[in-house]
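The instructor's notes for this session suggest beginning with a concrete chain rather than abstract definitions. Hand out the sequence below and ask the class to guess, before any prediction is shown, which regions might be ordered.
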Amino acid sequence: MQTITGFTGEVPPSAVFWELWQAINAIEDLIQGRPFPVGISKAAARAVHNELQTIMNQHFYKDKEDGTREFGLIDNPIPAFKWNALRNVLARFETVFAAEMGEATTYFVPRRGIYFTPALIDSADESFPIEIMEHIPQKARDDWRSAGRCLAFSLLSATGFHVARAVEATLEVYYQLYTAKSGTLNGWNDYIQALEAVVTSGANPAPVAKTIAELKQMKDDYRNPVMHPRVTLTENDARMLLQASDRDHGEMCAGAQKMAQHPVHVRPREMRNDDCASKQANHPQEHSFTHRFFGAFGFGLAFCIGDWAHLRLRRACPSRSPAFRVHLHDPRGGHHSSG
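After discussion, reveal the predicted structure:
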């Protein structure tokens, strides 16, 4: 803006185009609330924008025969009175803007360790390596950004809260990958127990025991305590938790990459004897019903065939002695015999 106020007399349009273009973009951003919203100075900012846009329209756009306009330099120089008018509205704007900024709330956010403050506030989730980003669910990234913002503004216990939520969101996906199940469980303990069951079952691939141990430690040392108001995190606690959670995310996402290379979920060794066992592993309820149905059907069919053969035997040998009676086991209880 200050560069424009230095122009005096008649100035060729080609000599000031870039300065005018930058000034128009800067004042438009301020009117729209970037980098921060303005109040009483907005009207003065619009007056500056109107003067700048008038110069741009009259000296950088040509009228076409069809009534539209196209961009192009006009040979006529920009007269001195237009620069004077622009300086006047700029002076009024600066006066009002300075008064408003004198009442504005301003603050300084100190740097937290090695974290760059603007990145910590706006894009903490970009700390994850690009190769694992696709395995981190969006809700985990949202909570991670909130955790970074809380750490920047020294909301330290809130940092731990959002970190725990972010890890649980990724833990949910980790559990679904290794158990081939959908849906969610009640909490960290249930997820960890389910993953431990996959490991002990002999499934391959299986979660890494070290990852489960670290998740269990985070649950006991941070996640569970931070849910209670009697526990307050220090900055050192919050930063250590953020770093530990970053590591756990990396390990879980490494497991997800491993599963992506082995899309077929292999069940435990004792359940891989044949195709029927595989179906039972994937559809236990369906297999259990089918097994019971055809088992009962087969037994009933055998019972009927036995009765039919026995009747044929009686008709063929009516005088057979009782010693040759056929004894049948009644599945409904007891025995019955026929002679």
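Then share the key points. The chain has three domains: 4-103, 117-270, 306-339. Residues 284-316 form the longest helix (33 residues).
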